[in-house]
Amino acid sequence: MNRMITSVGVALMLAMGVSMAQAQVGANFDPADWVYGPRGVAEGEVPIWNPVMQKIKNGEPVIGGTIRATDPRTYCAMAGAGYDFLWIEMQHEAMTWEQVSRMWLACPGPAVPGVRIAHESEGNVQKPVDMGALVIVVPTVDSVEEAKRAVAWTYFPPMGRRSNGGGQAFSSTMWGDVPGGYRATWNENVVLILMIETLEGVQNAREIAKIPGVDGLFAASGDLGNFSGYRQGDPEYEMLITEVVQAAQAAGKIACGPLRWMGTRPDFMCFQAGTEGANIRRGAQAEIQAANQRFSDAPARPRIAAVLANLTADCGEIVYEADCLSAVREAASASGDLTAPEQQGVRARLMELMAAHPSQAARIREVAAGAGLAIEGR
Predict the structure, then answer these.
(1) Does pLDDT of 19 surpass 60?
(2) Which residues make beta-bridge pairs with 89?
(3) d(CA 152, CA 162)
(4) 323 vs 330: CA distance, rounded Å
């Protein structure tokens, strides 16, 4: 469905014999009655040059990687790793927009630039889109009013209120030479995803999803647990997730969630993958493990380096509790193939993680014990 609105605008005045020099606003002028003119409106079918939007239209899954670092070299490595887009974490990190701008300018592809902003204010949306973002993720959307503000600041008129302020997004280095022109085709190519993270958001999810310009709802697995008091697998938690998915589907929008749900929850079509830090640790451990297996004639078996690397990747900073607990379960299960000293090393790492995350300590102990590795002490 074409998002753009075509009209004859002030041509109506000219048809009545009124010249532009003679036209006056008048005392009864009302912007609500204005018919938007042809400037900046693409004629005919609008070309889709954003690969993420094209995959959404094709019904294909979309995967975004997560960026928390500020180094352009690290960003470029992630941009070439195969993700559809990269989600720079501007809700929780202390990086500046200048740092974000440099990363996007260094590698505007292959992964499409994306960002999770802090909230739906004009400044939080205007800055990244002017710098080249093509995917905007807005967290903690509770109401229709918040969702409408996110749409307003994301889209150019007549659909929204984005200012035509320029920036590197308009340059030939980024999107200045796209088919149809950046300004005229922007409203058809930007992807806007709203995160449903609270009980209020779930309550209003169906009305939020209906708003034109909203492309998807993200069922925030971590914060839906945070705000509800339940965890994945609990009936209450699953009820909330189901409502978000059904709200998206009823409105013809996509449902988004963490990458671990890909393949296990078929209603989800876009996903958030891990951070660059987790990928570095996993990549290094895979390379080292492969080298060790080539060096050794012994049958391949789980090695403590690989087990500890996965624990550190998923539990060092607990973004999603379920990811951490899955790593704990895998580590505890793998410990049965390790030597006694190696098993103790896994226990020691788990105890370190429990001390670092006291609110998850009991659950980590429970999951490890259930997988066959008892952790003594409190």
Answers:
(1) no
(2) 116
(3) 7
(4) 11
What is the 8-class DSSP label of residue 295? H
Mean predicted confidence (pLDDT) in 344-361: 88
What does residue 55 show for φ and ψ, rounded to 5 degrees?
-65, -35
Length of the chain: 378
Spatial distance between the Cα atoms of 350 and 141, rounded to a whole number of angstroms = 35
Give this prediction's pTM: 0.80
Question: Exposed, middle or buried by CB within 10 Å (0-12, 13-18, 19+), for 9?
Answer: middle
Q: To 10 degrees, the CA torsion angle through 312, 114, 95, 74?
A: 50
Q: Which two tokens stand for residue 186?
A: 């922007």
Quote the DSSP letter at residue 33: G
Q: What is the DSSP string of 118-160?
A: SSS-HHHHHHHHHHT--EEEE----SHHHHHHHHHHHSPTTTS
- Angle 122-131/97-106 helices, nearest 10 degrees? 20
Q: Is residue 254 predicted with pLDDT exceeding 60? A: yes
Most confident of 208-212, 227-231, 372-376: 208-212
Query: Are 231 and 225 spatial neighbours (Cβ–Cβ below 8 Å)?
Result: yes
